[in-house]
Design goal:
Number of helices: 3
Distance between the termini: 192 Å
Oligomer: single chain
Number of strands: 17
Helix content: 10-25%
Strand content: 25-35%
Largest sheet: 7 strands, mixed
Length: 283
């Protein structure tokens, strides 16, 4: 009994290994509308190939038997196919939505372990960097941007941002001013299994946050100084015109005097003209 158990364990292990090796593998492959689909025989067949049979969703797609059956194709791919009989590779051109499905192959009457699940993917469109922060200026602590484009039929998509080097990230990115100051452009890239596109670079030079604060302080200081100058000017004008230091009298030149000397007021010592006294009648 003790000798039987190890033997059973060995047989069970070999059976599991056989299942693991012969288990079918379905690989997902992608194509674009109007693009090409290349289907390889994997693993590569080790010997001479004399019989090839490709199927699409279980139905005959392409067939060839050495010296017996010439290359023949299903009408659905006729005129856009290319089968290489030396390797079994099948290329289909001008793919469309109707070509989505499972592709499998038999070589020399043996079903190959790897089949393909083909899916249509739209190409990504050129994205645009869009500012999502209400205001994004040099004095801001952070700014948020979005890598935006029409993604209909193109998802899932991988997003990358470039801040010196490309980094895989999310659709939205937050730029921290004090950490990313000095960076001048922020392009983004969208990528899916069949295509990729890079945005035009957003030119937006980040200034260090502390420098922005200094400039704000200088601006405020200049406005305060300008206000102080205006106030001082008003005070001086008041003192000269209507204040306690206003000048008393004004020197006026008498045009009747040729020497242009100012006319002085008459003095008390000047001779007075005799007053006219009315005559009285004698009695």
């Amino acid at each position: 009994m003790m000798g039987i158990l190890p033997g059973l364990c060995v047989l069970l292990l070999l059976a599991l290994l056989y299942v693991a090796v012969t288990e079918d593998t379905v690989t997902t492959v992608y194509f674009t509308d109007g693009g090409d689909l290349t289907l390889e025989v994997r693993p590569a067949f080790p010997g001479h190939i004399n019989d090839i049979l490709w199927k699409f969703n279980g139905n005959l797609l392409a067939d060839w038997v050495e010296n017996l059956v010439p290359l023949s194709y299903d009408p659905r791919i006729k005129g856009r196919e290319n089968l290489t009989i030396e390797t079994g590779q099948l290329i289909i051109n001008n793919m469309s939505k109707e070509d989505e499905g499972v592709y499998s192959v038999e070589i020399n009457d043996r079903v190959q372990s790897e089949s393909y699940q083909a899916k249509l993917f739209s190409k990504v469109q050129m994205p645009k960097v869009v500012e999502r922060t209400f205001t994004c200026e040099a004095e801001s602590e952070s700014c948020r941007f979005t890598c935006d484009s029409d993604t209909t039929g193109a998802e899932p998509i991988t997003y990358s941002w470039k801040k010196g080097e490309w980094e895989v990230s999310r659709k939205d990115i937050t730029i921290i001013i004090k950490d990313d100051s000095g960076v001048k452009t922020f392009p983004c890239m969208m990528e899916n299994p069949v295509s990729w596109e890079e945005s035009d670079p957003l030119y937006w030079e980040l200034k260090p946050y502390y420098s922005a604060a200094i400039w704000v302080g200088v601006f405020v200081g200049l406005r305060v100084l300008a206000g102080a100058v205006v106030v001082v000017g008003l005070v001086v004008a008041w003192i000269k015109k209507i204040g306690p230091f206003k000048k008393q009298g004004t020197n006026i030149t008498d045009p009747a005097h040729g020497n242009g000397q100012p006319t002085s007021p008459p003095s008390d010592s000047s001779p007075k003209t005799a007053e006219t006294v009315p005559l009285q009648d004698n009695p």
